[in-house]
Amino acid sequence: MAPLLPHDPADALFPHGTTLAELGERAVVERLVLPRLQSRNSLGDVIGDDCAVVEPPAPDEVLVCTIDPCPRPVVFDFREPDHWYYGWLTAVINLSDLAAVGATPTGLLVSTVMRGDMTVHAYDRFLQGLAEACRTWSCPVLGGNVKDGAEFSATAAATGRVRADRVLRRTGAAAGDVVCVIGDPGSFWAAVLRALYRLDVPGLTAADEAVLEAALTRPVARVPEGMRLAATGGVSCCTDASDGLGAALDELAKVNGLDVVVDAGALQPRPAARKVAAALGVDPRALALTWGDWELVCGIAPDRLSAVRAALAPIPVHAVGAFGPSGGRLLLTQDGRSRPVADFGSRRFDARSSFTHGLQPYADLLVHGDLYDTGVAERQ
Questions:
Q1: What pLDDT is attached to residue 345?
Q2: Are 2 and 30 within 8 A, CB to CB?
Q3: Alpha-carbon dihedral of residues 369, 353, 77, 211, nearest 10 degrees?
Q4: What is the pTM of this model?
């Protein structure tokens, strides 16, 4: 039987319910993986040898690398699992790291472990989601590995290239630099809380519904935005918000040894998230500090902000605060009063880690917790 064509559904060629064990390793690679993911460069086919042979970066560029396992997609908690979301997320979490340093993606290596009784259809859905994300951000899959095991898992490593003098780093901020966010925080956890508590949210429009659906199922890696930020030469520091906007702001404060002072009025999520927050009685700024929306967070010198905004247009660059004097704290300021912000980051080896303890502990933090860290002294 012939292999899949790039856009064929697996059910068109394989009997419904066919498992990977019935297909076997060679057929999985030749009839599923290669048709979905094979690509070529100037050196020939990319996938098929023991190592992928790729073109080197230009003389003035450096190679950047990252690796991340993909967690079980949160949407699986609320719907029949569709491994398309697993494939999409596997790419996004790695490409977001490339975006944070301003790199152009050059490839993704993907290793999957699958149960033998996983259906061909389910694994092919994973490949479809992975392939669509890689097409979206022009990142070829270079190769990887398939292996049988007790449960499904996916790990990817991404490579990229960026001009050596334009690499975006977490360090480099100066007091007075404007703190900016590229992306829209808060929508992911608004969607999660709505689904978790089965909320009837008054006033949600069709546009709001679309925002929440996209946040839950198709997170976005800010790859073009990162590349443009790097090209401006006007960014003093940058990171992605993979562990949450609050965690990213806190990290930039600590590694630069400067306070990050955020304007409470600027820290507002989109209307859909604000409506969910109102239905739950939650401060919408707490939702804005959560994880799951994959923003970029950066420092920009005040005299470069207009040029950076022009370079990213029409993508908005949200100025939310500034780097203050030394201190390394994340502060939220309102009416001339600055207060330390509570920790809303996604933390490993923590009682609220969703990887180990599920969604409820973090949801409880948002619904019942305080926006401020009441154990730390305020700054007037």
A1: 83
A2: no
A3: 60
A4: 0.92
Pairing of strands 153-163, 61-69: antiparallel
Are the C-beta atoms of residues 229 and 182 closer than 8 Å to each other? yes
CA distances from 98 to 18, 115, 140, 242, 378 (A): 37, 31, 14, 12, 36
Give every CB contact of residue 81 below 8 A, 6+ residues apart in sequence: 122
- CA angle 36/294/92 to nearest 5° reads 10
Q: What SS3 class is residue 227?
A: helix
Phi, psi angles (nearest 5°) of residue 92: -60, -45
| Mutual angle of helices 206-217 and 187-196, in 10-degree steps | 100
Dist CA 55 CA 367 (whole Å) = 50
Which of 90-94, 174-178, 365-369, 376-380 is predicted least confidently? 376-380
**Parallel/antiparallel/unpaired status of strands 318-326 and 258-263:** antiparallel
DSSP line for 65-84: EEEEEPPPPGGGGTS---HH
pLDDT, tens digit (0-9, with 9 covering 90-100), for 260-316: 999 999 998 999 999 999 999 999 999 999 999 999 999 999 999 999 999 999 999
Predicted local distance difference test score (pLDDT) of residue 32 = 86
Whether the CB-CB separation of 23 and 31 falls below 8 Å is answered with: yes
pLDDT attached to residue 69: 95
> In sequence order, what are the residues at sequence separation of 6 or more whose Cβ sits closer than 8 angstroms to the Cβ of residue 112?
123, 126, 144, 145, 146, 147, 152, 153, 154, 155
| Dist. CA 229–CA 300, nearest whole Å | 10
Among candidate residues 217, 229, 190, 202, the one with its CA nearest the CA of residue 311: 229
How far is 296 from 220, CA to CA, in rounded Å?
Answer: 11
DSSP state of 372: B
**CA-CA distance, 366 to 136, in Å (whole number)?**
33
Task: Give the integer Cα–Cα distance in Å for 208 and 205.
Answer: 5
